[in-house]
Amino acid sequence: MRRPGHGRIVGVTMAARAARALVVAALAAAVLALPAAPQTGTVTEQPGVTVYLFWGSGCPHCAALRPFLDELATRPGVELAAYEVWYDEESRELYRRVAAAHGSEPEGVPTVFVAGGMWVGDSPASREAIAAAVERCAAGGCPDVAGAVVRGSELPVVPATERPDTGGTVIEVPVLGSHDVGGDSLIWATLLIAFVDGFNPCSLWVLTVLVAMILRTGSRQRLALIGGSYLLTAALVYGLFLVGLFSAFTVVDYAWWIRVGVATFALAFAIVNVKDYVRLGRGVSLTIPDRLKPRIARGARSVALESRALPLVVATSMALAAGVSLLELPCTVGFPVVWTNLLAEQEVATSEYAFLLAAYLVVFLIDELAILLAALAVMRIGRLEELHGRVLKLAGGMLMGVLAVLMLVDSNLLEDLTGAAIALGAAAVLTAAAILLHAGAVRLRPAPEPPPRKPRPRGAHAHRRP
What is the pLDDT of residues 363-373, one digit of tens each? Predict the structure, then answer.
């Protein structure tokens, strides 16, 4: 027996269900009819792999890298997308956004992006890493970060753990940020040139004179304050000089004649330094003039021995360091000219230049800082003999000559550890050979004949034979 009103309830329920179904279907149709919104917050995986190259028209390193990338693009599943950024404003803005998606900033050209990885410049290590990333992702399945930016997606920064190996070693430097020292094509040349540049006989002579004067007081505090302020000021002045050189090189468009001019200057610098080993002080010489050395010694004595308040002494030592640094420039100008030329040719970005400049100054000061710390430890210091200075000038001249030849033949040889090691080894061999040849020539040189003996004058009481 059916309850009263039961049929009416069932009919209402079925009608409600049908209405809900119609509403859901209408909403689904409306959603499907809407245009697809751009994807945000994800990195799509595209079939195959695309290599994104950002380059500049007239950039020699871009021209050298392009055939390698063109060869990669001939492989199955690999495409190359190139964007010129020096003269195309839209491509330059795209470069900025793609770099930001990789947690970086535009750092110069050429720059390559593959599957979440970013490579700036051209070096054997970066080429190997790019080829490995392309080979791994050619079949698909790798994140196309740059491609997502090109298609208009707004992406989060790619975590460092998800980026492919760039063929280098990333280090974190306070203030200067993270830098890939293994993939950096100029870090090894920077360390080599700065290390040899630091063994400058002019600056070492001045420092040893100053430290010897301070040691007479027997005060470690005085030695630490004066010596430390002297080195810091010298580094600051030298750093400003390096910045000025780099700015001068980057103002003009880089061309082949600049490299030839710098190489010629370096060869002249090398010849004068080698000459100073054999005949120091004769002819043209890249050293502190002898007439100025007594003034420097008097200035060092005034700073070290006069009884004045320490703040005034520190200020005086800083003034002395600034003046002496300018006098020392002829002794060492060849190395910063060659180094800044390499950086200008590579077209490094401002952030990368700041990192390389900091590395240069730290290595440049290592030998002088070691001298100061040793003097603080034992409260004594040895003297820089003339022979030591001549050998240092010979070694510096030989390395400068090797660098000049490499610049003329192929400056890219200096952009990795192997090239820097070859340059250092060649300079060491040439230095040793020159020392041995000079020593042999000195031994074979006939001894000078003694001057003829003058007859003894006869006095008034001299005995005369009849």
Answer: 999 989 999 99
